[in-house]
């Protein structure tokens, strides 16, 4: 099953194996690769190769791998404005739920790209999927990874708010957060808590990918300075800085930056209702306890990535 994000208002247009395979032939795209395999021979039009004019379906050279509720949809929608990027609008969940369907299936989902364009997809659950780093490495060790991170306490509340909007009968956030609240024992088996232990998850990625191949977007700065954050994303992808502050305006009603397309007559575009929900009110004491809980993980994370995200 592909996940269709309700906020997304634009679509885009042999079995994978569990071993340390070399990257598939011809999966290099335009990003310089260290171990780029020679391109596969041209296949007949009936296969996944398309007409050269329309481009070809390629495996992604870059992935937004997380984190859930970090601002991944905003990054995807902003970056796909770039003429050198084509992105899948849905979340394919290939490296977690659909891996058994194989790389050909995965490739068939991708939009067609020209030689000069990067293919991109986003599935936020990859970041916390144990097998994802190895599987992505086996697709191509040169895959560029983007992780959008956000204060883990706010992220957890955002995650809970989303679940509550679908299942109004779930227990309270305060109740779910602790194994024993009076002893301050946080329930790390609850996904909403676990996802925010970024330092822990990052370790699995660093077993396969060098830090230089992972770009961290600040979910907070993405809201206060979208052009600045997207400038760094474009640099990381090795594409020109096409997306600038001219592409954004702050929508007061939405309370978030939205896209405008200065060079066209297309109307401005904000993300949908599921992005930027009003969060559930949480007991401030619980927020403090969770801040304390996350502090060592955050410090470790800052040290590892060499950036202070200033989550208080
Ligand atoms: N420009 C813009 N417009 C709307 N929303 C924005 C934007 N930039 C970042 N955000 C934040 O993105 C949060 C949702 O994160 P994700 O897109 O990663 O969510 S999801 O995992 O795909 O469900 C969403 O979280 P909530 O505010 O908790 O709903 C937003 O805070």
UniProtKB/TrEMBL annotation:
Its EC number is 2.8.2.-. Its main location: Golgi. Residues 1-56 are annotated as: Disordered. The keyword Cytoplasm does not apply. Disulfide bonds join 258-270. Keywords: Disulfide bond, Glycoprotein, Golgi apparatus, Membrane, Signal-anchor, Transferase, Transmembrane, Transmembrane helix. It comes from the Eukaryota. The keyword Transferase applies. It is a single-pass type II membrane protein. One of its GO terms (molecular function) is [heparan sulfate]-glucosamine 3-sulfotransferase activity. One of its GO terms (cellular component) is Golgi membrane. Belongs to the sulfotransferase 1 family. PANTHER family: HEPARAN SULFATE GLUCOSAMINE 3-O-SULFOTRANSFERASE 2, HEPARAN SULFATE SULFOTRANSFERASE. This is Sulfotransferase. It comes from Dipodomys ordii (Ord's kangaroo rat). The lineage of its organism: Eukaryota, Metazoa, Chordata, Craniata, Vertebrata.
